Request: fold
Amino acid sequence: MSANGSIVIRGYEVTACHGVNPEEKTDAQRFSVSAVLDFDITEAAENDDIDKTVSYAAVCKLIKAFLCGESKNLLECLALSLARKIMLAYPAFSRAEVTVDKPDAPMKGTFRSVAVRAEVKRTTAYLSMGSSMGDRDAYMDKAVRLLAADPLVLSVTESRRKATQPYGGIAENEFLNSAVKVVTLLDADGLLALMHRAEKECGRERKVHWGDRTLDLDLLLFGDEVRGEGDLILPHPEMHKREFVLAPLAEIAPYAVHPLMRKRVCELLEELYVYNGGKA
Reply:
């Protein structure tokens, strides 16, 4: 069995230049950094093996080098950028929670410090991708490249592409559809924004709902996150009804679990086949 654990660093002090005021760019101030870094400690704990863990000293060295580098205006930017830096440097970590304290912040009044906490997680997301206009393969190839090019996207894996009939009664052209697995440090909103940029760069125009389009990207699952309102609903509310979504998804993630229905993708696909009279 795996044992979830954390490396915890408390109050690591660094002198650096960060802040909005001009003098904060040149006069060094004290910063205190704390971090909770989640990872599977099983091998290190059971074997008492230093090679199976992450060096605390190395993490602190990274923290110091980062704070002594490019000056940031805001603690918010400093904390989030540092959390991302740690996650990119150490693939063993599944989550980084970083708090940056500034005890000598230039404020009136009596206070111990001001601080900002930022959290970054490694999340596996699943997307549905389709195209029904122009060079469909070229648009889908470009979308994969654009997703993979983002520095906070760690890997992109695509299923095979399958020709399908249009869905919804509006589009007229045959679609190419696939599923895409994305491992990312972005949150769900950040990934959605990246998807929309990819659609725009591929000439997507949102004129007719369910109409033909050069590229269509839908966020199906984002870890086990559940959202019921706003512009992004998670999991995708229609995914379990669509064979052109479930079939390619089952190819790359048959055992991914729908966090509301508590069923695996392969089970949802089988149920859909039964509902449709055994027809794919």
In short: Residues 35 and 75 are 15 Å apart (CA to CA). The chain has seven helices and eleven strands. Helices lie at 42-47, 56-67, 75-89, 136-149, 188-201, 243-252, 265-275.
